[in-house]
Amino acid sequence: MNILKQSTAATIKLGPFIDDTDGKTAETGLTISQADIRLSKNGGDIAQTNNSTGATHDELGYYNVPLDTTDTNTLGRLKVMVHESGALPVWAEYLVVTANVYDTLCSTDKLEVELASGHGLATATALQTVDDNVDAILTDTGTTLSNLITSIKAKTDLMDASAITYTPNVVGTAVTLLRGDTFSATLTDVGALTGYVSIDFTVKRNTSNTDDEAVIRIRKNASGTGDGLLRLNRAAPTTETGEIVVDDEATGDITITLDETATDSLEIGTYLYDVQLITATAVKTLTSGRLNVTSDVTRAIA
Question: What's the CATH code, domain 170-294?
Answer without folding.
Answer: 2.60.40.10
